[in-house]
Design a protein that fits this description.
The longest helix has 13 residues. 18% of the residues are buried. The protein is an all-alpha fold and 160 residues long.
């Protein structure tokens, strides 16, 4: 299964599909929806509410979504105003996922700073990346910028 998902990710990336769209596509599958109650360890039938709760749990393991947040998305899904794909895409493209710094592993931009530069992102850097994403920037912009720094260049690497 993992090999198949990895191959699918390579095909999607080659086609120009963003990381956000990949994640949203996986989360919007019927399989993800059907397994939501079991993954949440609740004895309920799959529903739009269990789907939204699982998306929050998977994307933000350090954050307890409020009932207002859960109900906001659940009500839109129940009314047919938005798809499961759109819910996942909105959340994975949002500021909480990209920029919220809880520790070195959370907030995508902060996690990348830790991975490539060995430190947390600063507030001015968060502001800069927020403007980049707001103007259509993508994760690849962060990767390229960080790997082009002298800090990253001077680090020892386990490959030639």
């Amino acid at each position: 299964m993992y090999t198949m998902l990895k191959a699918a990710a390579v095909v999607l990336a080659a086609a120009g599909v963003t990381r956000e769209k990949e994640i949203a596509a996986l989360m919007s599958t019927n399989e993800y929806f059907q397994h939501a109650p079991a993954n949440l360890h609740v004895g309920a039938l799959p529903s739009n509410m269990t789907f939204v709760e699982l998306v929050y749990a998977d994307l933000f393991p350090y954050y307890n979504a409020s009932s207002g947040e859960i109900n906001f998305w659940t009500n839109q899904l129940n009314a047919g105003q938005i798809s499961r794909y759109q819910v996942a895409l909105d959340l994975v493209s949002g500021n909480r996922y990209l920029f919220q710094v809880v520790d070195s592993q959370h907030g995508l931009v902060n996690a990348l700073y830790n991975r490539f530069l060995g430190r947390n992102v600063t507030a001015p850097e968060v502001s800069y990346w927020q403007s980049v994403y707001a103007s259509g920037g993508r994760d690849e912009n962060v990767y390229i910028a960080l790997m082009a720094t002298s800090t990253y260049f001077l680090e020892p690497h386990p490959f030639p």
